Amino acid sequence: MFDLGRLRLLRELSHRGTMTAVAAASRLTPSAVSQQLATLEVEAGVKLFEPTGRRVKLTAAGLRLVAHAETILNAVEAARVDMGIVSAEPSGGLEIGCFGTFAKAHVVPAIVRARSRHPNFDVILHELEPEDAVDAVRIGRCDAAIVYTHSLVPRPVDKNFVSRTLVDEAVVLALPAGLRALPANVELTEFANCDWIGGARGSGGYELTSRACAIAGFAPRITHSIDDYELLLRMVSSGLGVSFVPAVALALYPDTGVTVRTPAGPALRRTIDIITRPAVASSPTFVSFLAELPSASAE
């Protein structure tokens, strides 16, 4: 009989390609991952993977077992959820991975409402950036992840997840308070010589800034890398740079004194989705929590 934990590790290996990456996502050491997968090979009685340089390639048998693992793990989770459904009243726990801005604006109030309606229902929040939240759902540490995607920085869609859009919001240009005389719509080229404030290098915010400015015909001088929107807005207001910000950040921090304008060119949007595994998507706990969150379909 196959161990479920080892099947999860094999599934992760198919996504990531290296023992080190699997270990990081699973919070294990690379040697522990290697030992567990070696044991799985013994259980399977066939070669499941082979090294190719620094990466690991699954054999044909390994790929077939990954497909079976997906089915097995989904079936086990569906059974767990089904056994927990004694009545339509949600109970038990739901673990959510979410980035900080949306958690402050929407998830925390949703948790408070859910607890007041369903005393036996407990939602546990983990502050995680989108990539880490998706990893947590895939490996089983979280039941659902709330993630964002910028219009110019699409993310790959994992067909093994169920996804629902919560918010589709505008991304606007935040400028120092002294620029209030500018028209409602501005050309990005007017700020080609300004310092820009972006997210951490490699983040969606950083890539959005680079790509939007590239479309306008220049490379932005991203001087500051800031992920905290309150800090970012206060830096903009103080004249330390200009930045793109989503609508939710302006709603959370309305007193920062920034000037807000719409950039010319392609409309910049940020979509926020909640993703989960198929078995969880139909559970009373998930459905009840989802009802407390905003829905793009209702806007």
UniProtKB/TrEMBL annotation:
GO cellular component, as recorded:
protein-DNA complex
List the Pfam families hit by this protein, alphabetically.
Answer: HTH_1 (PF00126), LysR_substrate (PF03466)
State whether keyword Cell cycle applies: no
Instruction: Report domain HTH lysR-type positions.
Output: 2-59
Q: Which InterPro entries match?
A: LysR_HTH_N, LysR_subst-bd, WH-like_DNA-bd_sf, WH_DNA-bd_sf
GO terms, molecular function: DNA binding; DNA-binding transcription factor activity
Query: Which keywords does the record carry?
Result: DNA-binding, Transcription, Transcription regulation
Q: Which Gene3D superfamilies match?
A: Periplasmic binding protein-like II, Winged helix-like DNA-binding domain superfamily/Winged helix DNA-binding domain
Which branch of life, at top level? Answer: Bacteria
Per the record, the similarity remark reads:
Belongs to the LysR transcriptional regulatory family.
PANTHER family, sorted: LYSR SUBSTRATE-BINDING (PTHR30346:SF29), TRANSCRIPTIONAL DUAL REGULATOR HCAR-RELATED (PTHR30346)
| Protein name in UniProt | LysR family transcriptional regulator
Please name the source species: Bosea caraganae
